[in-house]
């Protein structure tokens, strides 16, 4: 018994020719071909509907007749996949937020002096490469890094523990400046010059160390890593500025306090010592902001020479080593 029924789905109408003696399942197969909505996702609504239309019910026994209007509800496979992707992204975002909350809970809100730091959050061993020249000098430099007050401060704040602090040989790892193995099992740093005629700048090595410490939490150079690494650099700089404010002295030659520079007068410039305290503090804050901006720019270059994650997503400029 032939009939034509009108099916509406998400604003579109379909005129479907059917045989009322056929099973409901065959009609649903037709609708799947027309709308891409799987049979199991289809829900049919119409006046005079009888029962669920399951099994071998005929269209006539289900209540269909010629000219009837049917409203079909249901999502396509692509739409369901999209919903699942949205749900997966929501869960991922919630997990990231939970991770950040966990990190925030373990952080200390005040600067800790080395004397009050937990001895678990430190470098537990230091080993220079014995087959390279001047191992004693290399050990002294690694020891200085391991005992750096600002580095110990962030390690204590974030509960970072590193099993071994050692070095990378330039000829063995020509493209790398740093490497974090197994989230803190060991950190390896390039501390020597390419020609082995000396050691790289302490400031530069320490920036690499700070970068590798961030890999204790995040492996890839993604947004999570960048956020944590930026925060570590900021806290290192702020910690040193706090020492400057408290003692008015130079710290490892990295930071400069105009109040203690001993500089003479310059024509047209007011001496810092004659400025009120709020003006000196404002100047110090500007210096800190400038230092953090320099760190951000240097960090973008440093990512290209970190061996902890996979290959860099963007090829580095000529002359800057890339990840391996």
In short:
The protein folds into three domains: 2-75, Phosphatidylinositol 3-kinase Catalytic Subunit, Chain A, domain 1 (Ubiquitin-like (UB roll)); 76-106; 114-305, no CATH class. The chain is 41% helix and 12% strand. It has helices spanning 24-35, 59-62, 77-106, 135-146, 149-158, 202-214, 223-247, 277-302, and strands spanning 2-9, 12-19, 43-45, 69-73, 126-127, 164-167, 178-181, 186-189.
Low-confidence stretches: 107-116, 247-273, 310-324
Number of helices: 8
Globally, the shape reads elongated
Question: For the CA atoms, what is the radius of gyration?
Answer: 33 Å
The pLDDT mean sits at 77
Strand content: 5-15%
Alpha-carbon distance between the two ends: 71 Å
Q: Biggest sheet, in brief? A: 4 strands, mixed
- Structural class assignment: alpha/beta
Helix and strand arrangement:
Layout lengths: L1 E8 L2 E8 L4 H12 L7 E3 L13 H4 L6 E5 L3 H30 L19 E2 L7 H12 L2 H10 L5 E4 L10 E4 L4 E4 L12 H13 L8 H25 L29 H26 L22
Parallel strand pairs: 1-4, 5-6, 6-8
Antiparallel strand pairs: 1-2, 3-4, 7-8
Helix pairs in contact: 5-7, 6-7, 7-8
Offer a few descriptive terms.
WLM-domain-containing protein; 324 residues; Ubiquitin-like (UB roll); disordered C terminus; alpha/beta; 4-stranded mixed sheet; 3 domains
Please characterize this protein's 3D structure.
This protein is an alpha/beta fold and 324 residues long. The chain has 3 domains: 2-75, Ubiquitin-like (UB roll) (Roll), CATH 3.10.20; 76-106; 114-305, no CATH class. It is 41% helix and 12% strand. It has 8 helices and 8 strands, in the order E-E-H-E-H-E-H-E-H-H-E-E-E-H-H-H. It has helices spanning 24-35, 59-62, 77-106, 135-146, 149-158, 202-214, 223-247, 277-302, and strands at residues 2-9, 12-19, 43-45, 69-73, 126-127, 164-167, 178-181, 186-189. The strands form 2 sheets. Strands 2-1-4-3 form a 4-stranded mixed sheet, covered by helices on one side. It has a 4-stranded mixed sheet with strand order 5-6-8-7, covered by helices on one side. Helix 6 crosses helix 7 (223-247) and helix 7 (223-247) runs antiparallel to helix 8. The chain is elongated, with a radius of gyration of 33 Å. The chain starts with a strand and ends in a 22-residue tail after the last helix. Residues 107-116, 247-273 and 310-324 have low confidence and may be disordered.
